[in-house]
Amino acid sequence: MSRLVVTGRRARAVTAVAALGLLLPLGACASASTAVEACMAKQATSVSSVDLTGTYTGKDEAKAVTMTLKPAGGRSGGTVTVHNWPTGDWYKSELGDTFNGSGTWQVDYSGGPGDPPQVDLSFTEPRLFLDGYTIDKLSIAMDSTRTYLYKNDDPDACPAFRLKKR
Description:
The protein is of the alpha+beta class and 166 residues long. The chain is 20% helix and 34% strand. It has an 8-stranded antiparallel β-barrel with strand order 1-2-3-4-5-6-7-8. Strand 2 (66-71) and strand 3 form a beta hairpin. The longest helix is centred in the N-terminal third of the chain and has 20 residues, at 8-27. The chain starts with 7 loop residues before the first helix and ends with a strand.
């Protein structure tokens, strides 16, 4: 039986390579918003309703989707109109894979300390949806020229369901 014994400089080199191998997976998750920033813009930490009003068009999984956010005087939010919005499993037998509808929206800061704001959607047409039965919470990414709303499924990947403001 033979034994491999590593000493001196070789030992330090082997130790450094082993340590690097352990640290690399941590570097891939350096920031929850890194993937978002790479494919869209920086995750918003503060936003007003005025910043968000407008018409959005879908990308990737949201390719055929359009959404319009309109303000409602004096409130943080307003009305929402959607076309080709994903129905969700519960209502597919009744409404099909997508629906055209409307309701209200608002900026939600109710997450924990340091959590970014989200857009909460409440659909009333074609019917009242229960929370979570369709996509009803969207994260916000923005910079000086672009605004995105997206479903934040995996912070380590570019969101597949995302809408860009026109």
